[in-house]
Amino acid sequence: MGVQLTLMSALVPNLVPTTDDSFHAPTIMDLFPPVVAFAGTPFTIDRVMMIRLIMTLLLVLCLVLYATRAKLIPGRAQYMLEFGFKFCQESIAEEVIGKEIGRKYTPIITTVFFSVLFMNISGIIPGFNLAGSAKPGFPLLLAVFAWFVFIYAGIRETGVGHFFKSSLFPPGVPWPLYLLLTPIEAISTFIIRPFTLFVRLLANMIAGHFLLALTLSATNYFLFAHLSALSPIGILTFAAAFAFTLFEILVAFLQAYIFAILTAVYVNLSVHAH
């Protein structure tokens, strides 16, 4: 029993009580864990930041190993990476932006996709159990990055004047209506776009964390910490936790795809503006 309790507690760090029989549901404070290093400095590191650093190093390591050990006949890991690269190029960048211009922005789209994917997938890794994208910093950084990318792409491909004119002054509209439409277009293009990218990713990963943490906490409570006639409920909560884990894997890939394809869509709107 002690081994089982220890294992379940490791799967849900800082969420499951091990010293009493009361049930402790996950709270918003799970997203703000104690500082582990450099407290009181601009370089404060907590568990979420540690997860981000580890997943970033893991992504860089995968790419370095691919660059230095790629073979003509790929192995399983190399094939998976190359499939991801090809998917980002053909199914996102070139499909949305067009082959000629899409190739220019394939590295950016690929970087966005894999960065979001690696941060998201940490939410189902035992010992981490929290996505690096479940706190505002990372989603906000990527949203601002996407904002710079589509503005840069529009200016680079169409020129400064044409980009801002097409973005703020829709063609075919009577001039008096620009007093109303121009502020709306400015807010929609330069504020709403990055804000929706930020909120969509953050909200989905927070929701996934709470659902998974809640089912694992309930499993620990009913099966190990509070043995009673209600213990069989723990089997149901364990099944739910397993189902949510599979669902979170799907969400991790789906949110990476959505973030990457919306970035490509915004680039396409900028470079093909009329």
UniProtKB/TrEMBL annotation:
InterPro entries (UniProt xref): ATP_synth_F0_asu (IPR000568), ATP_synth_F0_asu_bact/mt (IPR045083), F0_ATP_A_sf (IPR035908)
Gene Ontology molecular function, alphabetical: hydrolase activity; proton-transporting ATP synthase activity, rotational mechanism
Family, similarity comment: Belongs to the ATPase A chain family.
PANTHER family membership: ATP SYNTHASE SUBUNIT A
Lineage: Bacteria, Bacillati, Actinomycetota, Actinomycetes, Actinomycetales
Transmembrane regions listed in the UniProt entry: 49-68, 105-125, 137-155, 175-192, 223-243, 249-269
One CC-aspect GO term: proton-transporting ATP synthase complex
Compartments reported by the entry: Cell membrane; Membrane
Purpose: Key component of the proton channel; it plays a direct role in the translocation of protons across the membrane.
Name recorded for this polypeptide: ATP synthase subunit a
Keywords of this entry: ATP synthesis, Cell membrane, CF(0), Hydrogen ion transport, Hydrolase, Ion transport, Membrane, Transmembrane, Transmembrane helix, Transport
Main location: membrane
Pfam families per record: ATP-synt_A
Topology class, membrane: Multi-pass membrane protein
